[in-house]
Design goal:
Elements (H helix, E strand, L loop, with lengths): L8 H10 L3 E5 L3 H10 L3 E4 L3 H4 L11 H14 L4 E5 L9 H14 L3 E5 L5 H9 L4 E6 L5 H4 L9 H16 L4 E5 L3 H10 L4 E4 L7 E4 L1 H4 L21 H14 L5 H4 L2
Parallel strand pairs: 1-2, 1-8, 2-3, 3-4, 4-5, 5-6, 6-7, 7-8
Helix pairs in contact: 2-4, 2-11, 4-5, 5-6
The structure holds 5,10-methenyl-6,7,8-trihydrofolic acid, 3-methyl-2-oxobutanoic acid and magnesium ion.
The site of magnesium ion has 6 residues, from loops.
Length: 268
């Protein structure tokens, strides 16, 4: 048994290049951070989905930078090995690249190893500004929950040729600007697999098929404690398990084995 080391960007890039799947889950506090770390989750996302699962809201837009800082601090205290990514919330990176730097640097000071922002095209300049100054950035493309209203609802992105070409173009722009990671939400599996195959950086998917470099789910969804109807890409990993640790380990094993997601069941 080799000693487990702190997860790093080069290691994540190596996993992507070697076809070793990356397991990621959202996390918002120290107790779960420690449990997910023990279960072998490679990356924890302090997601602005805390709006939905912690705050009982219907949208991620009202989440504040202070909310994100508080939860990032809590998560980082519970982590020994995992790579911590924090979402830049709505209205914390839009007005200028300088504003984005201030928000991102605050998240780094709170313990984030990387920040994630939503959208392509206009964000490239911001991605370059942060990356060149030493903050690793993940670019979230496809369905972007912060701008659900502009997208006309909770919809798959990249279905038609024009929309697919846009995702390809915006991925390329993000990579050229220095993005260290991409995340696709609700993108057709074939499109995500095709881009991932030639991407120089890892591509994490949620509702984007098994062909991505890795997977992420909202923790409360995979533990089946989110009330109401769940998105198609969710699977209940507590089914048949008698502990949270066993459920999370089941997720890690399934992602690593490529047995989750099943495109015909969880994909678009
Ligand atoms: N609990 C939770 N889970 C999430 O995955 C999640 C959040 N919250 N909050 C932020 C965003 C919002 N997300 C969502 C929310 C709803 C759908 C949804 O209703 N999807 C439907 C329709 C898709 C379609 O066919 O166009 C689905 O069946 O998946 C998808 C993603 C993903 N993120
Ligand atoms: C759904 C994932 C990718 C996310 O951004 C979040 O949890 O906030
Ligand atoms: Mg988010």
């Amino acid at each position: 048994m080799t000693e487990r080391k702190l997860m790093t960007l080069p290691r994540l890039a190596q996993m992507h290049a070697g076809g070793e799947k990356i397991a990621m889950l959202t996390c918002y506090d120290a107790a779960f951070a420690s449990l997910l770390d023990e279960a072998g989750v490679d990356m924890l996302l302090v997601g602005d989905s805390l709006a939905n699962v912690l705050q009982g809201r219907g949208s991620t837009a009202p989440v504040s930078l202070d909310d994100m800082l508080y939860h990032t601090t809590c998560v980082r205290r519970g982590v020994k090995y995992a790579f911590v990514v924090a979402d830049l919330p709505f209205d914390s990176y839009h007005v200028s690249k300088e504003e984005a730097w201030k928000s991102a640097a605050a998240l780094v000071k709170a313990g984030a190893h990387m920040v994630k922002l939503e959208g392509g095209g206009w964000t490239a300049e911001t991605v370059r500004f942060l990356s060149e100054r030493g903050i690793p950035v993940c670019v979230h493309l496809g369905f972007t929950p912060q701008t659900v209203t502009s997208l006309g609802g909770f919809k798959v992105q990249g279905r038609d040729e024009v929309s697919a070409a846009r995702i390809r173009r915006e991925s390329q722009q993000a990579i050229e600007a220095g993005a260290a990671m991409l995340l696709y939400e609700m993108v057709p599996a074939a499109l995500a697999a095709d881009i991932t195959a030639t991407s120089p950086v890892p591509v994490i998917g949620i509702g984007a098929g098994v062909g991505c470099s890795g997977q992420v789910l909202v923790l409360h969804d995979m533990l089946n404690i989110t009330p109401g109807r769940k998105p198609r890409f969710v699977k209940d990993f507590m089914a048949g398990k008698d502990s949270v640790l066993a459920g999370v380990k089941g997720y890690v094993d399934a992602v690593r084995a490529g047995s989750f997601p099943v495109d015909a069941v969880h994909g678009f």
